[in-house]
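Re-running DUF1232 domain-containing protein to confirm reproducibility after the cluster update. Everything else is unchanged from the original entry.
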Amino acid sequence: MEIDEHERRQIKASSEEQIMTGQPNDYPNDYSEPDLWQKLSQFAKQAGQNVVEKALTLYYAAQRPETPLWAKAVIYSSLAYFVLPADAIPDFTPIVGYTDDLSAIASAMTAVAFSITPEVKAAAKQQAAAWFGANATSDSSPESPNAHPIREISIE
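Result of re-run:
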């Protein structure tokens, strides 16, 4: 099925409107910041520091005003997939439960790599380390004053 120029413009306009209203597709409809923090606090240790750090990297990248709306849509889609309890490989499956989540997050990181600044990486790494206790510092704020403030949660 070939799409003509008129249809292409309509799709683009619809997509832009959906992104501007914060509803770019089904996954972002399922994303919410409280759900992300809840998932991280309940399942961070099970998911592992690597998955958590990458999810935080995407979250902080999405908070940057310089990140384009389409990139935020990609980010929120992958975070929504991470938050959703039903996915390709159930999260409770031992060892491989978060493999699909990590794949979705890694794909999103590749797509929006230009929005992942050294400050974003440092803030995510520092927060993950603070939560997991590895190289944690007593000050859990990001080194860069331009980075998004770090959310305090307790990992169960």
